[in-house]
Specification:
The complex is a heterodimer of chains A (150) and B (153).
Chain A (H helix, E strand, L loop, with lengths): L5 H27 L22 H11 L7 H9 L4 H31 L3 H28 L3
Chain B lengths: L16 H6 L11 H24 L6 H11 L2 H30 L5 H32 L10
Classes of the chains: A mainly alpha (150), B mainly alpha (153).
The structure holds protoporphyrin IX containing FE (2 copies).
């Protein structure tokens, strides 16, 4: 197993530890942040209706985008991703999160596959395919988060 | 991928084919338990699948209409259940992962039992506090508005 060397093993533990902090932040932002409001509001809607956001969120969106702006999920996220100052920070955070999560996830996936796929050729194919997918996701993810709101 | 540490020395070198046969379920078998390890693997792979879908879905960020439609779907009852399941998977994988890291890096193996239960408790708290928004939303929907305590929301 050429791939499972000590450095990668070590890195996997480091990325895992990093992910704890990043996931806590991510979860807070997406679910708990009432100041700016989170995209997932704690309400169930049916027939794909949009959620009604709390007043703080409505005010925040109006303050940023004018008195007629409606608090839609997109605008709620744009409070972070289109902000002249904080956007750089948040885009940076998202990209770092993306890189770390992809590395940890796909390295882990390769470990699992190496355990079940016995043939060297099969392993090579699985590894090549999975890292290609990871690279594709990295490009797509960076594109969406960088261009969002700009 | 079996990792050798002081606490988990590698199996004596075997060169015959039977060792290869057994290798499949080797890592962390005895010390931390087969079940904990299998759940770690299962949640890990599940999270990778979620991550792929998630990043793919987030291309919606480039268009307001599409993004609104996506997030509207996030509020359907079934997604609220999925959201909770996702949290359970993340919390378990994260805390079990942290346990492995602590054991590997700090050699905390004499305290393994205590560590196991402490982190088990932390996991329960994470699931309760983090899962409350989903449970609250589902409860309000099922039992009617005002029927759930807001608590810290
Ligand atoms: C939240 C913090 C996380 C921590 C502390 C963490 C920790 C770990 C550790 C220590 C391992 C190695 C286990 C071993 O060698 O047996 C591991 C494996 C793995 N992790 Fe994570 N992880 C985290 C998040 C994630 C996320 C977000 C994903 C998915 C994107 C993920 C996917 C995986 C996979 C697929 C494996 C391989 C499982 C195996 O080999 O059995 N992890 N994790
Ligand atoms: C139900 C729970 C979740 C919700 C509602 C959610 C929502 C979002 C949203 C709206 C974004 C857009 C960027 C932003 O708002 O700043 C985002 C980005 C991201 N999320 Fe999540 N997320 C959830 C769970 C997760 C989990 C469990 C992971 C890790 C496996 C994850 C990994 C990421 C990554 C890596 C990005 C950055 C993507 C990019 O740069 O294109 N998310 N998430």
């Amino acid at each position: 197993m050429a791939q499972t060397n000590a450095l990668n093993w070590f890195l996997h533990r480091i990325t895992g530890t990093f992910l704890i902090f990043m996931l806590i932040t991510h979860f807070w932002v997406q679910h708990y942040d009432h100041q700016a409001a989170s995209v997932t509001h704690e309400v169930v809607t049916e027939k794909n209706e949009m959620p009604d956001y709390p007043d703080e969120a409505k005010e925040g969106v109006r303050a940023r985008l004018g008195p007629d702006a409606a608090a839609t999920p997109y605008q709620v996220v744009m409070q972070r991703l289109a902000d002249p100052v904080y956007a750089v920070l948040w885009k940076g955070f998202n990209i770092l999160f993306l890189v770390v999560a992809l590395h940890h996830g796909f390295y882990g996936l390769n470990n699992v596959m190496t355990d079940y796929i016995r043939a060297p050729m099969g392993r090579l194919i699985a590894r090549t395919l999975s890292w290609t997918v990871a690279l594709g996701l990295l490009i797509i993810g960076m594109y969406s988060v960088i261009t969002a709101g700009w | 991928m079996a990792v050798d540490t002081k606490e988990r020395p590698s199996a004596p070198q075997q060169t015959d084919a039977s060792a290869e046969q057994e290798g499949r379920f080797q890592s962390y078998r005895i010390r931390t338990g087969m079940f904990a390890w299998m759940m770690h693997r299962l949640t890990g792979v599940g999270l990778v699948v979620y991550l792929i879908v998630h990043i793919w879905g987030l291309t919606a960020l480039t268009d307001p209409e599409t993004f609104n439609a996506l997030i509207a779907k996030y509020h359907s009852p079934i997604f609220k259940v999925g959201e909770f399941a996702l949290l359970v998977a993340v919390a378990y994988h994260a805390m079990n992962g942290l346990r492995l890291v602590l054991i590997d890096f700090l050699g905390w193996s004499p305290k393994q039992k205590k560590l196991f239960w402490t982190l088990g408790g932390v996991t329960a708290v994470i699931i309760a506090v983090g899962g409350w928004p989903s449970i609250y939303a589902l409860g309000e929907w099922l039992l009617g508005p005002g029927s759930m305590p807001t608590l810290f929301l």
